[in-house]
Amino acid sequence: SGSSYFKLTMIVSLVVSGVCLLPVAEGVCGVSYNNDVGQSSWYPPGIGYELTDYGQSDRGEVCKFYFAYVTTLSSPGDVTVRFYNGTDSTTCPGVYLDGWVFNGLSGSSDGLARAFSYEFDVPVEERFTLAAGAFGYSYEFDNANTGAYMASGGDGNENLFWRNCLGPNYFDAGGDPLAGFYMRIYTEGES
Q: How far from each other are the two terminal CA atoms of the chain, in whole angstroms?
């Protein structure tokens, strides 16, 4: 069965095999933030925790993003992804921009922790603008066996993250892995 996502307020579209079936406006959609150097580790926060990471971005309209998660379940449940402007090591969550709930995602076939990435083309009518500077992105999981895939490499990404905006929490592993979460964001020009 295909994956689906729904806007935090309503069902919007069906997504099959990680590619949105809605039309995307023509134009150049290029990488503007890339925190995707995998750390081979994951952080399962438990139920009811929003994990917020942050970085720096050039101004642009978000046209696509990749996120990653790790699960031991064959069906990882709902994964909520949100975006904020102004999030950094002293400000959480920042100004809410947009968010989606994804379900029907791939899961582990053998009960072992497996990482998956998911590509989402943001429908034209749901695109939002990241301001130049600090921004945040968050994950929330509806079970204790699914969590954030640890990653690094993004501009402005630090060895810190927020858990329910209490913190910032420091993932104390001596910097290996770094306390950052996988995210690759594509924007279309400067708007």
A: 37
**How much is the pTM?**
0.83
d(CA 25, CA 45): 36
Residue 53: CB atoms within 10 A of its CB come to: 26
Instruction: Report the sign of the C-alpha dihedral through residues 11, 8, 133, 191, in that order.
Output: positive
Half-sphere exposure of 15 (CA within 13 A, CB side): 24
Q: What is the pLDDT of residue 145?
A: 97
DSSP state of 191: -
Q: How many CB atoms lie within 10 A of CB 169?
A: 16
166 CB contacts (<8 Å, ≥6 apart)? Answer: none
How many residues in the chain?
191
Q: Give me 10's structure tokens.
A: 């309503």
State whether residue 42 is helix, strand or coil: strand
Tens-place pLDDT, residues 63-79: 999 999 999 999 999 99
Separation CA 73–CA 11 (nearest Å): 24
- d(Cα 105, Cα 75) in Å, to the nearest integer? 7
